[in-house]
Design brief:
Length: about 60
């Protein structure tokens, strides 16, 4: 397997900036990407709330932007 810069060498996925729309009680959030698509994202690693921008990889928010 070659290392392609810009992609995770494990899963081939990119980090995607998303806006948090709503945070649920179970540390999951409804987020929206730049194309307007909605995704369920785990927020366990970040302190983010509705309106915040997060960088998401493989369904997990890694950092607040």
């Amino acid at each position: 397997m070659s290392c392609d810069s810009g992609h995770c060498i494990t899963c081939g996925d990119d980090g995607v900036p998303m806006r948090v729309l709503r945070v649920r009680d179970d540390a999951l959030a409804l987020c929206e990407d730049a194309d307007g698509a909605h995704h369920t994202v785990e927020l366990a690693l970040v302190d983010a709330g509705a309106g915040d921008q997060v960088l998401v990889h493989a369904g997990v928010a890694l950092v607040t932007l």
